[in-house]
Amino acid sequence: MKRTPNFHSEGRLNSYCMNDYVIITDSTSDLPGDMVKEFEIEVLPMKFSIGGKSYFDGEMSNDEFYKKISNKLVPSTSQINPKEFEEYFEKYLKLGKDIIYVCFSSGLSGTYSSACHAAKELCVRYPQNRIEIIDSLSASLGEGLIVYNISLMKRNGSSFDEVVRWAEDNKCKVCHWFIVDDLHHLQRGGRISQAAAIFGSVMGIKPVLHVKDDGKLYVSEKVRGRDRAIDVMVSKMEKFGVDIPHQKIFISHAACEKSALVLAEKVKKKFGVTDVTIGEVGPVIGSHTGCGVLALFFLSNKR
To answer: For residue 280, which of 64, 24, 7 has the smallest C-alpha distance?
Structure first.
């Protein structure tokens, strides 16, 4: 596994290792607003377009976005460029803060590359600060699960290095299991093959997808019916999950809250889980999944 670059001057590390630091993620983490506020997480809004207009995440409600998709409008997304990253990061560097940025999977977006480019430029202008760009190799609340855990560590007094180490050591232990109603959204964005999308369009067939260590999406199983697909996701948790009753479990959905509640109840009943957070898939991720996506996220020994 590649090591995420750390942008700082090794020779000066001891002189600024006690800087305050900020944890930043992007809106593809789909973290609920109350959690963002509670842990003082900074969220960089990503961009999407629909109906001939461009928006930043947060400028359109999820309900309105999915109504537009239901009316056959086709959305698209664009990544943040290095200059925009520079401007965003610099606000915190000017305050003397170090930066830990957990970004959308490099297997699904060029976000990581743009952020690294910006960090290289900024470390020349701010040699007393550290910028750590963490490729989450995750998406939606899988990315959010990493951010949640390191934010909890920060609140409990963990150092910059301890937080970074946990994220790097555990990012490929975040399991993503999910189903979508229309795989053609993923195919249009180049996330899966045309063959997989065609198969997914067969009536009654629900591919169960997951994310591998390269941060890309793969079809794992093909089952008939949404109820059966939900049961398969629960079985994957049973197979791969570790210490499940004591984990924070995340579930995300796109305009299918009823299915999310069913999944949450199954997880609670089977594993004795008490800490389940249900969140909504935002427009940027939703541009590539469409309505009806349902996802389950948890920690494991491996994906």
So the answer is: 64
Would you kindly state where each structural domain of the chain is located, as residue ranges? 6-65+73-172, 173-299
DSSP letter for 157, please.
Answer: T
First to last CA, the chain: 14
- Side by side, the strands of the sheet bearing 47-50 are 53-56, 47-50, 76-78
pTM, whole model, 2 decimals?
0.90
Residue 238 forms beta bridges with which residues?
Answer: none
276-280 and 249-253: which strand pairing?
Answer: parallel
Q: Where are the beta strands (DSSP E) in 225-275?
A: 249-253
Q: pLDDT tens, 203-261?
A: 567 889 999 999 999 889 888 889 999 999 999 999 999 999 999 999 999 999 999 99
Note whether 176 and 279 are within 8 A (CB).
no
Side-chain half-sphere of 76: how many Cα atoms within 13 Å?
7
Query: Are 62 and 286 contacting, i.e. CB atoms less than 8 angstroms apart?
Result: yes
Task: Look at residue 110 and give its three-state secondary structure.
Answer: coil
Distance of alpha carbon 124 from alpha carbon 148, whole angstroms: 30
Burial class (CB in 10 A: 0-12, 13-18, 19+), 92: buried
Note whether 86 and 76 are within 8 A (CB). Answer: no
In terms of CATH architecture, what is 173-299? 2-Layer Sandwich (3.30)
Q: What is the mean pLDDT of residues 103-113?
A: 96
Range 6-65+73-172: architecture per CATH: 3-Layer(aba) Sandwich (3.40)
